[in-house]
Amino acid sequence: MQDQRHGYEQLHASCFGIIKWIYDMKYYLTEAKIVFTEHSKYPGYDERRARWKHWYPIGLLDGKIEIHFLHYYTEEEAAEKWYRRAKRINWANLVIFGMEQNLCTDADIQEFDRLPYEKKFFFSSKEMPGIKSNCFVEKFAGRGHVGDPYKSGHHFYRALVLNLRRNHLLNNSNPL
Fold it and tell me: Are 10 and 52 in contact (CB under 8 A)?
């Protein structure tokens, strides 16, 4: 959810906001309206935006879910891209990815694991044996968050393959 070429902008804010959005994803993508705001409702995010390479819009879906449109310069462009992409979603073939970032807690990871989607994967910096969706990224062990997937993609890929094998969705004789 971090690159406009692959779908949606970052639902920055907190991990809880992302999980709430995923539970009601169809509503938020087909019915909810974006209202833009000057300031983030989360501590530290206005300062983060001020350090970004350019000003970017922040939107609220129905006044609840905060979205940071990192790759856009105007509210008009952000809204146009959001609504256009929402129409292209194949609801029968969703894969949900989450990451231990943006104020994420262990309770958030457990809540993510309970989401009503079959194909869901959560990249974290810790082993969590009871969490089926957890993909432990060893490179980030003990840090309390995972790093940038674009700079460390091969580490995320390895964690995903290990998860698929652990859950018997991929066998050792059938590598990706």
Answer: no
Q: What is the pLDDT of residues 3-58, one digit of tens each?
A: 333 333 444 445 656 788 888 899 999 999 999 999 988 878 888 888 888 899 99
pTM of the model: 0.72
The C-alpha torsion from 116 through 118 and 124 to 129, rounded to 10°, is: 90
CB within 8 Å of 74: residues ≥ 6 apart: 57
The Cα 136–Cα 159 span in angstroms is: 6
At residue 148, what are phi and psi to the nearest 5 degrees? -75, 115
Beta-carbon-side half-sphere exposure of residue 65 (alpha carbons within 13 Å): 24
User: What is the C-alpha separation between 176 and 171, in angstroms, rounded?
Assistant: 10
